[in-house]
């Protein structure tokens, strides 16, 4: 079939590779350079973690919401002026985590997408000729002590119950592995199955290159809607004119919300604005990615230097970046690693995580335009879940019946 993939981020790139693998005629529609700074794929924490099954909304979160409004320095902030517009999403967000049963169901669904993510990425990277970009050294969570770890007991039970194994490191073993880590951390949790990406931008570009090298076409245009013929998809309408197709995949990140509406679906999708800072020469290199649990940020060794990624900022669309958020990441890292060399100026980035209230991506057939497939809204798991999402989408192009096993991810849940 002729398949148009809207978006050349990590999800769109993986969809294109899998569709080409199945023999389809693929056009990737993307106005900007694949792997560019406009995409959430560019700025993520670079973790590929089977442990990322814990949704953002958890039982008791509603009690903390006033504090998030008041604390402008916390890892999750909410811009008060954006509250009216965000309220429909926030209500559903809080409902999604109102009981342990609900978050257990969400974690189980996420586990299906993440369990073999490192292996899938290793295979893709090797196929694209960039095997060195995926490193499988594990992922480490650093806690002050056992009490701090046990304060997150439900999150770690969700991981354990979904097949995630880990190794505990006492203070001596933690210090032996990470001598640069400050004395405020006395317990390490090593998820050995985790992996990370040395350069997410280069990786995305390589996957798009893999697809185009096998015959996909890259159309530098912006998708704006769909043209129907006898009630079915006939073309994707773009800024450069219509692109005829039999199927279209919406994988346009935060831009997917408007395209989903054009395909007949109202989805609750908002931007969890995230930040990162990159320190080219921090004075040491971490042997593996680390998350200091008190800061909830990913500290990842990359080709460009130490990437400090995190923060969740719910703000008005188009609001200017609050670059204090990037500075907060650097400040926390300076406390976590006393020997850190942090220059007064550093590379910083802000981007849009396309997030649903329940923490699950939207993957399924559009209800208002036959032939359109949704593949967006991955929030914090876009990098990790992209390969299997690409496979699910390619299978759905062959037969929509294959989506029956993923009904919880479909757009109908927002009705």
How would you describe this protein?
Helix content is 33%, strand content 25%. By secondary structure, the chain is α/β, with parallel strands linked by helices. The chain has a domain of 265 residues: FAD/NAD(P)-binding domain (3-Layer(bba) Sandwich). Helix 1 runs parallel beside helix 13.
Summarize the structure.
By secondary structure, the chain is of the alpha/beta class. It is 33% helix and 25% strand.
Named at the architecture level, the CATH assignment of the domain at 2-58 and 106-116 and 197-283 and 305-414 is 3-Layer(bba) Sandwich
Q: Which regions have little confidence, pLDDT < 50, spanning 5+ residues?
A: none
Looking at CATH, the homologous superfamily of the domain at 2-58 and 106-116 and 197-283 and 305-414 is FAD/NAD(P)-binding domain
Distance between the termini: 30 Å
| Main sheet record | 6 strands, mixed
Strand arrangement, largest sheet? 10-2-1-14-21-20
Categorize the overall geometry.
globular
| SS-based class | alpha/beta
Any key phrases for this structure?
415 residues; alpha/beta; FAD/NAD(P)-binding domain; 6-stranded mixed beta sheet; 5-stranded mixed beta sheet; 21 strands; 33% helix; globular
Topology:
Elements: E1 2-6, H1 10-21, E2 25-29, H2 40-43, E3 47-48, H3 61-70, E4 76-78, H4 83-96, H5 100-114, H6 117-127, E5 134-135, E6 139-143, H7 146-150, H8 153-161, E7 167-169, H9 171-177, E8 187-191, E9 195-197, H10 200-213, E10 217-219, E11 223-229, E12 232-238, E13 243-244, E14 247-250, H11 256-262, E15 270-279, E16 290-292, E17 297-302, E18 305-314, H12 324-336, E19 347-355, E20 362-365, E21 372-376, H13 382-398
Parallel strand pairs: 1-2, 1-14, 2-10, 4-18, 6-16, 14-21
Antiparallel strand pairs: 3-9, 5-9, 6-8, 7-8, 11-12, 12-13, 15-18, 15-19, 17-18, 20-21
Helix pairs in contact: 1-10, 1-13, 6-13
